[in-house]
Amino acid sequence: MTTTRNTRWARAIGRAYLRPAAVALAAACLLAAPAQAQEDRMTPIPIPAQPNAIPLKTGPLPGAKAKESWHSQYNSVFARNVTEATLTPFLPDPAKATGAAVIVTPGGGFRTLSMENEGWDVARALAAQGVAAFVLKYRLNQTPADMPAFERSMAEMFSATAARPPRPNPADAMAALAPQIADARAAFALIRQRAPEWRIDRDRVGMVGFSAGAMLTLATTLSAQDTKPAFIGLIYGPLSEVSVPADAPPMFVALAADDPFFANSGFGLIESWKAAKRPVEFHLYEQGGHGFGMYQKSTTSTGWFSAFSSWLGMHGMLKPRG
Predict the structure, then answer these.
(1) Counting beta carbons within 10 angstroms of the beta carbon of residue 165, is it exposed (0 to 12), middle (13 to 18) or buried (19 or more)?
(2) Sheet harboring 76-80: ordered strands across?
(3) What's the pLDDT at 172?
(4) What is the secondary structure of 240-279 as a DSSP string?
(5) Where is the Dienelactone hydrolase domain (predicted)?
């Protein structure tokens, strides 16, 4: 990875992801849910059994004090205060396996993870298509341990009078995602290491992310050359322009035109990929808001997974190679 690419990507993060106008993202991604369920409250739940989760060797989050906890909301489950990363495989029926694999990165503003709607449900749907899927539970920024304090902290972020942090410099912006990028790199390394066991083609491992997970997917792609994903999917993430490497992977992007966070800042990312003459497919749905994921809604945004699956098929990921 060259210093130039590092610097350009750090600047892109500073412009697009951590600018003052996007501060509410950390709270907004938490509320990744269908609009009709906005009245649902967060309810603490025991940490679900995850017998297949594989610990990644990135170690505990430095300085973490609050322990991992989970809650339910919108008939779905969320994790927060994740201090140690894990990877959970969802393997297809061997008779249907294509050899392709996808790392699934849920969103949640780097404060929570939408583990069900943007993680497990997506992975199950991919496995049904014959694609091995791996849900990455990456380390998160710490939040208050008790639920009332957590809810208050998120409400403060939504408040119009909330203090806005200063615009970060590029080095700080890149450092902010360092733990998550390390987790993603470890996930790629583990999948390729165990590829024979899982019947995976090492050259056909991609990544799909949602909101903050889309940010992580793009950051990992552009800043960590050792990952080299075969393809990437960015679902309702920022679309600011970036410097695109000559070997950038095919990219699938889906966004709703009424997304309150990322639908009004242009389509620089799409234009960047096109200018670099790299494959890109972009779906802009009329309605869907933010965080539609695998929720079944009356809007056409619900069709994003079908479109993504067709795109994977077009790129040969739904059939065994050779």
Answers:
(1) exposed
(2) 43-45, 69-73, 76-80, 112-113
(3) 61
(4) ---PPPTTPPPEEEEEETT-TTTSSS--HHHHHHHHTT--
(5) 107-298
Is residue 102 within a helix (H) or strand (E), and if so which, with residue range?
Answer: strand 101-105
Distances in Å between the alpha carbon of 202 and those of 65, 102, 206? 37, 11, 10
Alpha helix positions (H), the chain: 3-16, 25-28, 121-128, 147-158, 170-176, 178-193, 195-198, 212-223, 268-275, 304-314
Please calculate the CA angle 90-28-273 and round it to the nearest 5 degrees.
Answer: 65
- Tell me whether strands 76-80 and 112-113 are parallel, antiparallel or unpaired: antiparallel
CA 63 to CA 69: how far, in whole Å? Answer: 17
Q: Who contacts 109 (Cβ-Cβ below 8 Å, separation ≥6)?
A: 25, 26, 27, 28, 29, 30, 211, 212
> 315 φ, ψ to 5°?
-95, 15
Instruction: Give me the numbers of helices (H) and strands (E) for the chain, helices first please.
Output: 10, 12
Question: Residue 210: in which H helix or E strand, if any?
Answer: strand 205-210
Q: Where are the domains of the chain?
A: 3-314
Determine which helix (DSSP H) or strand (DSSP E) holds 284, and give its type and residue range.
Answer: strand 280-285
Q: Is 7 helix (H, G, I), strand (E, B) or coil?
A: helix
How long, in residues, is the chain? 322
Query: Poorest-confidence range of 29-33, 81-85, 158-162, 237-241?
Result: 29-33
The pLDDT of residue 22 is above 80: no
State the pLDDT confidence band at 2, using cuts at 50, 70 and 90: very low
Rounded to the nearest 10 degrees, the angle between the axes of helix 178-193 and helix 212-223 is 70
265 phi and psi angles, rounded to 5 deg: -120, 20
Q: What is the pTM of this model?
A: 0.89
Is the confidence at residue 288, as pLDDT, over 70?
Answer: yes
Token digits of residue 267: 């389509």
